[in-house]
């Protein structure tokens, strides 16, 4: 709530709470609602990925097949298809992730989003990566188009006089949107992930983030006090959090989410085995009524479309739909020598038939969106094309070993990456680049979420490097005892296991290795922690009282992602800013080596992993 600002929308929740006692019971005799079906088209976490992804690998009738997948112009085509009672939703994390953000600071994202004209954008945590002022700049760019997208964040309260609330609390951010379909008013409420945004991004200290569940229920109750019985939450907090929230709320009907980059639905027919749940996922709210949950993967590769039918009381009667992976019509399969070449006409015709019902669909780019994108590509082309090295094999992206989502789906050589104990190849390589760049560091530390994409085998360009590491971090060297290093590792894992924070905190390291048991309590998860000192080729036990030099990003040194022990060491003055840009460090590492490959097995930080369910990973 917002008691300090009576003029804000939070103060208006009080009458609703007075009418609803505990804030959970249905109000007596609400106005009758007519049964209705609405279509909800949605994406999330596009992270400045505006162009289609080339060489995305699927399997068609058991044959590896490379296609071009996604891209904002193809999404625009799907969003513009005529459908009755259509709600267009972006569930957050529009920015940060490619050179389009680096060079255009949100302008290109806003322009492409305005070719869709979303009804609502729910803020993601990465919308605050450049602070409240950076977010305002992006929202001004979004407003400059014809669409006037409503920006939702019911639990975010910027202080008056700050960039997001220069004159009033809701200058830029709204708690909800009322929208009418066939005479029926729908309430759409936005909820931002609280802890992750506060700890893993850069909002102003004066910007307050309220509890997600409490705020959601208060806002739902306010809308129901107005007689609105059809309630959709648009959240940016992750699939598992959405399911848990639904069970604790009364009156919610639909949750469209983002943040966890979750692919829902069954894509096994095209060789994508990782599956976190069905689409839609149907759970029950606190009233026992069904709640339909949807999310649409990541990076403009997927489009979600959910049809929700309500009965005449505003309760969900049914929901259905699918997630679509829109692709181009250029199919390439291996020839006798193993090279991927364009298929012949007969094979092409057969592929079209085999794609039916797979969730993969050939979609032509929207010409308006394509032309808009073309206006931004010019400045990128030279930098994107310049080669800085070669990956001799794919370096796969994983956050937590054993996670259900394969973040490297579509990258040849990474089909089972999420099921292996070694975890993230690319995080290991980046950590090694840090360690080599530092003249003093025994150990380099990298959080899994700081790496944004896998590295496919083949040519590596500047554009690739800045997609893998898109942020503006610099490297710090810190002096830590062996005991503190273990505490740092426990902080990193505890952030997502114990504090419901981002699993992007999960640690990777160069010059440090361990055995990890996620089923154990904090303080006993890490065993056999070993270090390879600077200039040595020998692994030896980490000594609790010995001091080591650790190099890591300023983000982690300042306590981002729950790295509290690092923050204390940094605040005590036991750190030095190297002023090395972390992406340029990786670029320099590639330029010096020429070729990059996966580390030797003995150099992976994860030497043995037991999942939180007690399963030992291979």
Can you put this structure into words, describing what you see?
- It is a single chain.
- The protein has 618 residues and is an alpha/beta fold.
- It has two domains: 43-52 and 81-320, 4-Layer Sandwich (Purple Acid Phosphatase, chain A, domain 2), CATH 3.60.21; 386-610, Alpha-Beta Complex (5'-nucleotidase,  domain 2).
- Helix content is 26%, strand content 26%.
- The strands form eight sheets. The chain has a seven-stranded mixed sheet, with helices on one face. Strands 8-9-11-12-14-13 form a six-stranded mixed sheet, covered by helices on one side.
- A hairpin with a 5-residue loop joins strand 17 (332-334) and strand 18 (340-342).
- It is globular, with a radius of gyration of 24 Å.
- The two termini are 48 Å apart.
- Residues 39-262 form the Calcineurin-like phosphoesterase domain.
- Residues 415-567 form the 5'-Nucleotidase C-terminal domain.
- GO terms for molecular function: 5'-nucleotidase activity; metal ion binding; nucleotide binding; UDP-sugar diphosphatase activity.
- Keywords: Hydrolase, Nucleotide-binding, Signal.
- This is 5'-nucleotidase C-terminal domain-containing protein.
SSE layout and pairings?
Elements: H1 13-19, E1 36-43, E2 53-60, E3 63-69, H2 72-80, E4 86-90, H3 99-104, H4 107-113, E5 120-122, H5 131-143, E6 150-152, E7 156-157, E8 176-181, E9 184-192, H6 194-200, E10 208-209, H7 212-225, E11 230-236, H8 239-248, E12 254-256, E13 281-284, E14 290-294, E15 303-310, E16 316-327, E17 332-334, E18 340-342, H9 345-354, E19 360-362, H10 367-385, E20 387-391, H11 425-437, E21 443-447, E22 458-461, H12 462-468, E23 474-481, H13 482-497, E24 507-510, E25 512-517, E26 526-531, E27 540-541, E28 547-553, H14 554-557, H15 564-571, E29 575-581, H16 582-593, E30 595-596, E31 606-610
Parallel strand pairs: 1-4, 4-5, 5-6, 9-11, 11-12, 12-14, 16-19, 20-30, 21-28, 25-31
Antiparallel strand pairs: 1-15, 2-3, 7-10, 8-9, 13-14, 15-16, 17-18, 20-22, 21-24, 23-28, 23-29, 25-26, 26-27
Helix pairs in contact: 1-7, 2-10, 4-5, 11-16
């Amino acid at each position: 709530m917002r008691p300090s600002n009576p003029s804000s929308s939070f103060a208006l929740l009080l009458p609703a709470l007075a009418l609803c006692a505990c804030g959970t019971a249905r109000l007596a005799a609400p106005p009758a609602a007519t049964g209705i079906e609405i279509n909800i088209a949605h994406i999330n976490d596009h992270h400045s990925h505006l162009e289609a992804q080339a060489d995305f690998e699927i399997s068609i009738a058991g044959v590896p097949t490379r296609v071009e997948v996604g891209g904002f112009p193809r999404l625009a085509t799907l969003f513009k298809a005529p459908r009755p009672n259509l709600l267009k939703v972006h569930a957050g994390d529009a920015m940060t992730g490619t050179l389009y953000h680096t060079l255009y600071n949100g302008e290109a994202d806003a322009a492409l989003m305005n070719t869709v004209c979303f009804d609502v954008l729910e803020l993601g945590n990465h919308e605050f990566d450049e602070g409240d002022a950076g977010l305002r700049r992006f929202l001004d760019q979004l407003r400059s188009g014809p669409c006037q997208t409503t920006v939702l964040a019911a639990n975010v309260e910027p202080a008056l006089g700050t960039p997001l609330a220069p004159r009033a609390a809701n200058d830029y951010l709204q708690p909800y949107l009322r929208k009418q379909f066939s005479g029926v008013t729908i309430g759409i409420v936005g909820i931002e992930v609280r802890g992750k945004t506060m700890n893993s991004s850069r909002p102003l200290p004066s910007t307050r983030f309220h509890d997600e569940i409490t705020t959601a229920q208060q806002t739902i109750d306010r809308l129901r006090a107005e007689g609105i019985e059809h309630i959709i939450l648009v959240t940016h907090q992750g699939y598992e959090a959405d399911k848990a929230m639904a069970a604790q709320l009364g009156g919610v009907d639909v949750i469209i989410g983002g943040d966890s980059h979750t692919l829902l639905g069954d894509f096994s027919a095209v060789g994508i085995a990782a599956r976190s749940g069905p689409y839609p996922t149907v759970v029950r709210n606190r009233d026992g009524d069904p709640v339909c949950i949807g999310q649409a993967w990541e990076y403009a590769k997927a489009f979600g479309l959910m049809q929700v039918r309500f009965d005449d009381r505003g309760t969900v009667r049914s929901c259905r739909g699918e997630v679509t992976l829109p692709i181009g019509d250029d199919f390439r399969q291996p020839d006798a020598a193993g090279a991927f070449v364009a298929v012949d006409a007969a094979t092409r015709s057969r592929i079209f038939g085999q794609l039916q019902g797979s969730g993969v669909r050939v979609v032509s780019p929207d010409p308006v969106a394509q032309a808009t994108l073309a206006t931004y590509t010019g400045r990128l082309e030279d930098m994107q094309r310049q080669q800085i090295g070669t990956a001799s094999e794919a370096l796969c992206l994983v956050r937590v070993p054993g996670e259900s989502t394969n973040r490297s789906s579509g990258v040849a050589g990474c089909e089972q990456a999420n099921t292996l104990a070694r975890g993230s190849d690319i995080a290991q390589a980046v950590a090694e680049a840090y360690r080599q760049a530092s003249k003093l560091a025994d150990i380099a530390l990298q959080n899994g979420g700081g790496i944004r994409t896998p590295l496919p085998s083949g040519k590596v360009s500047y554009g690739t490097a800045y997609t893998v590491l898109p942020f503006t971090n610099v490297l710090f060297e810190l002096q830590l005892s062996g005991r503190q290093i273990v505490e740092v590792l426990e902080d990193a894992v505890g952030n997502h296991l114990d504090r419901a924070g981002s699993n992007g905190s999960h640690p990777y390291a160069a010059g440090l290795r361990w055995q990890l048991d996620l089923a154990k309590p904090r303080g006993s998860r890490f065993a056999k922690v070993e270090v390879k000192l600077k200039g040595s080729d020998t692994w030896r036990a980490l000594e609790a009282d010995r001091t080591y030099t650790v190099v890591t990003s300023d983000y982690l040194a300042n306590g981002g992602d729950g790295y509290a022990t690092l923050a204390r060491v940094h605040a005590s003055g036991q750190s030095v800013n190297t002023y090395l840009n972390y992406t340029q460090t990786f670029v320099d590492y590639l330029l010096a080596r020429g070729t990059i490959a996966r580390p030797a097995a003995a150099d992976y930080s994860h030497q043995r992993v037991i999942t939180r369910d007690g399963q030992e990973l291979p």
